[in-house]
Design goal:
With 196 residues, the protein is of the alpha+beta class. 24% of the residues lie in helices and 32% in strands. It has helices spanning 2-24, 33-43, 58-63, 77-80, 165-168; strands spanning 48-55, 68-74, 83-90, 97-103, 113-120, 127-133, 139-142, 147-150, 153-158, 186-189.
Length: 196
């Protein structure tokens, strides 16, 4: 019992010491446990990058007038060894698979591209995908030419080459932006906005 009391006393002293340090640095601290936790949490907040993706062409915008996706990246490679990339899309074709890429250039001809995941929309045309990868330092490297290409843009494609036919017609292009090499067109991209 004495050992437990000593541990509790030591822990309480440590918390008070942290509180005193925070108070000395101008952090909002009133001595309540909640305020201390909030002050510590504020100092440890995760840096984030955010982008909004919009339809890639006016025709796709006309077919899907409410389509967009919000991308949030928790930039934690330095602390965790990976970043967390979350895409939340709405206004898309219901019950449809989409592929997600980091790109050299958001629009055609796209340049270097990294395929890293998929998400599927529900009956309302909403979909969420969350992926662990290195985003802040993403690049493609050509060992033959020794050329490094940063990948700071984002694009989303119809995973099936027929899923864009309702909007673009049966003769719509087949692209290589899926694992089986047969995808539809790019549905959304980040435009001129770039990830760090």
């Amino acid at each position: 019992m004495k050992a437990r009391t000593a541990v509790l006393a030591t822990t309480a002293a440590a918390v008070l010491a942290v509180g005193a340090v925070l108070a000395g640095t101008g952090s909002p601290l009133t001595g309540h446990g909640t305020d201390t936790a909030l002050a510590l949490s504020a100092q440890r907040s995760t840096p984030k990058a955010q982008l909004t993706l919009k339809p890639s062409t006016p025709k796709l915008q006309a077919c899907f007038p409410k389509a967009e996706a919000k991308v949030t990246v928790d930039l934690t490679t330095a602390t965790k060894g990976f970043d967390t990339f979350t895409v939340r899309a709405k206004g898309l074709r219901p019950r449809t698979d989409f592929t997600v890429f980091l790109l050299e250039q958001s629009g055609s001809p796209f340049g270097a591209a990294e395929y890293f995941g998929d998400f599927t929309t529900n009956a309302k045309g909403e979909g969420v995908g969350q992926f662990r990868l290195i985003v802040e330092e993403a690049f493609a490297f050509n060992n033959v030419t020794q050329q490094r290409t940063d990948l700071n843009a984002v694009g989303v494609w119809f995973a099936d080459e027929k899923d864009d036919d309702d909007c673009l017609g049966a003769g719509s292009p087949v692209t290589g932006f899926d694992g089986d090499g047969k995808a539809g067109v790019q549905m959304l991209n980040s435009g001129t906005a770039l990830l760090p």
